[in-house]
Amino acid sequence: xxxxxxxxxxxxxxxxxxxLTGAMLELGPVAIDLRAPVAAHLAQxxxxxxxTAVLLNYRGYDTLLEIAVLLLALLAILAVVGxxxxxxxxxxxxxLQMLARLATPLMIVVAxxxxxxxxxxxxxxxxxxxxxxxxxxxLHLVGLLPGWSxxxxxxxxGLVAGFALFLAVATGLxxxxxxxxxxxxxxxxxxxxxxxxxxxxxALILAGLFLFLAREEAA
Amino acid sequence: xxxxxxxxxxxxxLFALGVAxxxxxxxxxxxxxxxxxxxxxxxxxxxxxAQRHDVPDPVPQAMVLTxxxxxxxxxxxxxxxxxxxxxxxxxxxxPDDANG
Amino acid sequence: MTLxxxxxxxxxxxxxxxxxxxxxxxxxxxxxxxxxxxxMTLVWARLSxxxxxxxxAAIGAGLTGALLFDAYGVLRRRSAGP
Lengths: 219, 100, 82
Description:
The complex is a heterotrimer of chains A (about 220), B (about 100) and C (about 80).
Chain A: H1 2-25, H2 35-40, H3 50-58, H4 60-81, H5 94-117, H6 125-142, H7 153-174, H8 187-211
Chain B: H1 3-24, H2 28-50, H3 58-89
Helix pairs in contact in B: 1-2, 2-3
Chain C: H1 2-22, H2 26-46, H3 50-80
């Protein structure tokens, strides 16, 4: 019985790949091409990198919902884990700790650069937040940062700040027109402001995905 | 055959591999690995098909960026649930349905 | 020439993906998954998508790999304990 199920699933998977390959080979020229409108309005969008413009201007609503989903996932993880006591960091080799101490300021500088550069070249809030979260995980792994227990007030404010800031900007714009329709003169500043909030929150959320779970098991 | 096309085909194969893995594998941690393979396959199809004539397209790239970040959050939540299951029952596989 | 490189990376991707799911040792599977993430970063560079490449390297390979290893360590420690 089990063998029949395995054979059936494998056959279906192979058939799926073959059918999809056949369908892909028959595609003609691209039907919906959004490159031209993206490039046409790039001057008014506030940034000069098309991917950042799509993420934070043309499809800004998707990014707003994305940060909300991340916050929800973190809340779900906190609910699964439950209440925990504070922990002590794991001790590690002093050479590793020295390397981590040297690397962390560099990672912070790289993150701030990526945040700033997202307006003109590849980069942006997500990459910057990911680098900061990686720095936090690195510090935890060498024993310089303890695992996180139930978040205190400052951590909670930091976690929610990105989403709250984005929502505040969106609501403010809603009162003057459509949702998330930046006035072209202020679009660059607003996008940088939103991205800064997103970077801080994203770094804390991504680091929290790891650090709220990484605790010393009771001996 | 353009770059986008090669990787779109690879993405389709990875997606099928991931789905077969999620369905057939019992161990929950491996199932999470297969789920991430499915996600990577989807990203490749999204960007590869849109760029099959080798011109970069920013809209599917932005969508994939969103997808990667949401997928890591989903993976973290799934791992937290697996750890809780293991702490409560000692198993890393979901119990089979009762026969009958 | 570039087609040969693309095919090589695509085949490595499929090989890595298959062995992630098929290898009997779980820690080897996680290492192969991190390798898969780094190969995906190469793919994004080939597809002229450097933003996705940056995010995939940091989040897809780095953070997901750290999460998986942490979970694997906890599961192993608990089953080897009392």
